[in-house]
Structures are given as C-alpha cells and as structure tokens.
Amino acid sequence: MGAKLKELMGLPSLREAQLMSGQNCLNQTVTSLTFLDIANMDDYAALLETNEYHSGELALTSFFNIKDDVAKQCETIRRLHKMGELGIILYYVGVVLPRLSSEVIKTAEDLDFVIIQMPKNQNQIRYSEVIVEVMAEILKERSTENLVNEVLEKASLLPEHLRTVEVTLKLLSDLLRTNIILTNPDNEVINQIKWPRNSSVDLERILRRVVVEDGEQVQKNDFAIFYKELYHKENGVLRFYLLKEHDLLTEAECGQSVELLQVAMNLWGKKHGEVSEYALVQAILNDESEKMYRLANHLKVDVKGIELMWLLQVNDLREEKKLKQDILAYASKFYKTCVAQLMDDQLIVLLGNYCHTDSELELGEAYLQTSPYQDMIDSIVLCPRLRNTTEVRTTYQLVNKVALQLPKLFHGKKSFSISEIRQVVCASKLIQSGEAEVEETLSVLAPIMDSKEQLMTLCSFLLDAGADFQVCSEQLFIHKNTVKYRIKKISEALGYNVMRFSESYECYLACLTYRLISL
Which residue numbers delimit the PucR C-terminal helix-turn-helix domain (predicted)? Predict the structure, then answer.
C-alpha cells in the first residue's frame, strides 16, 4: 500500500539523512522506489514520451552525469516533478556531486519536491540498504479502510488535466499492484491498466475464459478476478474488473475500489464511456492514451498524423454547430484528418495528413478573414509542426494560460502564432520574477516613457500591427507616412532600429511587459 515519508525518515538507513526540501510532504505516501540512472533530461527526453504519472515515487540518484551543471540539476527537478515524482534520495554529495546548490534546493522548495540528502562526504553508503528497508516498509500489510481517501488525496494534488478516471485507476493499480479493466455493456474496453505496466498478459483473453458473478471473486490459473457491475447516470452500465496475479484481493480492497471508481466517475467521468470525437479530444487533452487509441481506432481517426492545431476563442455559442461545420468544410479541402470539438468556450481543431503542396502557414488566417462566422471568434491561435499528441496537450495547456489576456494585450488583433503565445508566457514569468527584472526590461523604453503618443505608437506598431505601417495607420486612424515618421523618431530616441528584428526584439518584449503590468 505504501508508507508515509515521515515513517521512512525514521528507518536506520535514512536516520542520518537530511531532508533538504519538501517539509510539507512528510505526510505524503511513498508507494515505490526507482533509479534515476540518466539525470540529464536532454538524454532522457526520448524515454519520457509517456502518459504515466509516477505519483508517490522516490528516485535514487547521485546526479553523476550532471554533477557540475546546476542548471541541468534544476531542470531535472522540474521534469521529475512534472512526471509526478515525489522526490529524490541524493547519494554521494561531496564525493560525486561537489555540493548541493542552494539554487537546486530553492527550485525543489518552490515545487514542494522532496530532496533527501544521504550523509555527506561518505563513499561507503550503499543503495541496497535504503532499497531493502524502504521497500519492506512500503510492502507491509496495512489497512485498506482509507483507500478511497488516499487515492483521492493523491489525485487532488495532480495538475487539473490529470484529474481523470484513468489516472485515478492507475493510482489504484499501483497501490493494490493489480490489473484493472473497465468496459461498457458491450464489453468494449474503456480503460485497461496493467500491473506491471509493461505486462504482456492478454487480460481480455483471460476474461473471455472465465465466468464470474456480479460482486464475486474467482480464481483462474494464476489470477484472482473480481467483477462488479455499476450504473452511472452519464455512462449507463459499466463493468469493472480487478485481476490480481498470484494473490487474492481482500473484501475491503474490492469494496473500496468500487467506491473509488464511483466517486471518480462522479467527479471526472462525464461521458467517460462515450464513443465520439468529443471523447477522443478529451482523451488527448487528459493524457489518456489507451482510451485515445481505442476511440481513434473506432472512429477511424489517425491521431498519429495530427500535426497542426487551431485554437479558437468563441464568444457566442448559439451557432457553434454551424461554425464547426464551416471549419470542417474548409479544412477538409486541405487535410485528410480533421477533428473539431468545442471544449468549454474554445473550439479545438486538430488537423493532419496535409494533401496539398501550397504553404500551410496562411490557411488559418485565410479562414479567419473569409469566414461568415468571424464575429463569433475572439482569436485564433495557430500551432504548427506538432510531433505527437503529447505536444498537442502541452501546447493546449500553454495557450490556455494566456488566452483570455490576448485581446487586451494585442489590440484589434485576432490571429496569433504559437511563438507570440510563448512570448506572452515569457513576459508573464519575467513579471513574476520580481521588480528588478521588470525595471531592467522596461529600461529600453525609458526615453519615450513620458510621451504617451510615442509609447502608444510603438506598442501598436510592434504588438498589434506586426510591424506593418499600413495596418498600424488604420488602427491609429492616422496616415501611413505619419506612422513612418513617428517610428523613425522613436528609433532615434531609443537608440534601436525597431525595423530591424535583431534590435526590435527587446523593444517588443518591453512593450509586451508594459501592457501586461497595465492590465
């Protein structure tokens, strides 16, 4: 089931260790240990293309291959936290790693990420002592009465997009070390969680060869199989199976698992068993890979071919169906894979398998300019060259951080590139980093700060008009030549040629920061 971190810190093998960060995590449950044998995330990236979330796991490492690079150590902490790791047990400080940097500790503290530092300057400490003791403590028989609360507590600590039925079942699978299958009334699999995850056992084949009554547990070969039929108002009848290898499940474990599924379905299971493009997009955004591939196969959608996303902020939902049909009619002329679904007030368009030779870059802007529904659209963000559904999800999350600010930051502008979104995120982080950083960024604009006209013109020219004199003149209701004259005077005052990209970037970021702090 697992053990509380504070219990583990009292074990003989960890008694001399120091908790360097994560004091708020002492009551969290540790469910497993792993080795971080590649601490450099640049080398590890290919192995991270996974939808797994390692909640409750501690990683053992010495940071051997990044021992002299504090920046990479901090990046490792951030990536491990994003993957759901509870923390690390750090070995050989003073032997392999010269010292644990205060910057690394601060990064961990900001994330509530645990760093347990083994005794410094010792080369006789062994990984095996911690592994044996901690795993023995984790595997101790414990009461399952609080199983529901324990899993829900873990789920509540996850990022919002990971609070799903599938991730809840994964947490349950790890705690009980059992396989889980959830099907619809036609025995079509909705979720399948294997334990261990790389298991090659054909669970569906096992279920086809056994008869088990509702609410009962039977043994078949090496498996104990529990079955329960549930009814959910949104999804109808669901069939829930637990398949534990070699051991029987206790009555409490079965009962608590059923209760947990019911709670998870009520919290996050709206249309969970539905077979539709809406459910497919939701599975992509929620990182539910098994469900995503099952739905994609059923709907004949090539999710691996998706490489472009449009995100449209919609202000009027009354004609959403017509807008969606219009977009699909337009996009299907250029793409074999076209999916468009409304999520909240945002229309997500996923496109792939481009079937023309013309440039794709202007298709989104061209649609916005010609659509009869353009008044419904507050903005469209164009996100090209997506390599997989993981990038679809992370890009969607990135845009959502700033989407509502776009009309206020870019006056009169409706079409945005993902690059512009990243600049907004960058400026937001800069503001959060402190007053000194903001003042340094805005210092570029100091010569024109007292001239409202020049400041307004520069912001409009760089942010709203994309450095286009004609567009800027239309937005400011002045002649094009007047804009050119003002920009020339502004460049002279700043000492930057704002018509040259290499020099205008600092001015662009300063203008963006100025508007952000003025919101």
Answer: 456-512
